Amino acid sequence: MFKKEYWNLKALHQKKLQYQAAMDRVKQLPPDYQQAFQQISDYLMANYGGFDGFDLMDAQVNLIDLFSEVAAQQTPVAEFIGPDIAAFAHDWGESMNVPNWTENYQQKKQAKINQRINKKLGGK
User: Fold this and answer.
1) Spatial distance between the Cα atoms of 26 and 23, rounded to a whole number of angstroms
2) Distance from first CA to last CA of the chain, Å, rounded?
3) CA 118/CA 110 separation, integer angstroms
């Protein structure tokens, strides 16, 4: 979410209402879809987004829309997401262009280590 939008309290309140309405739709999904949604949401919250989670809202709402469509076709959730729910969650986060803070942290850490090693070896 852009900083300008973040401080627009009316827009923020509206976004929260839309998000809550979408979360209420999760309760209408079959139990296996509800469980999969919760596991994917937990993965996304642990690995993606900023500190407030607002940038994950759209990804979750889009996932609810997708699960609603697939469940309406009576496709088993395991058949749809495959055997590796973490891989599905990772791919979903990437496809929604949500920042992955764990990967960013690892990249920064690796760059610092490389910089220290190069400095000790006489490089820049």
Assistant:
1) 5
2) 37
3) 12
Summarize pLDDT for 22-78 with one digit per residue, the tens: 999 999 999 999 999 999 999 988 887 665 667 788 889 999 999 999 999 999 999
CA–CA separation, 124 vs 118, rounded Å? Answer: 6
Q: Indicate the fold that domain 3-120 takes in CATH.
A: c-terminal domain of poly(a) binding protein (1.10.1900)
Query: How far apart are alpha carbons 33 and 66 in whole angstroms?
Result: 11
Is the Cα dihedral 62, 52, 21, 85 positive or negative? positive
How far apart, in whole angstroms, are the C-alpha atoms of residue 66 and residue 1? 22
Contact 58, 5 (CB under 8 A): no
Contact predicate 35/76, CB 8 Å: no
pTM for this prediction = 0.74
Q: What stretch of H or E contains 40?
A: helix 31-47
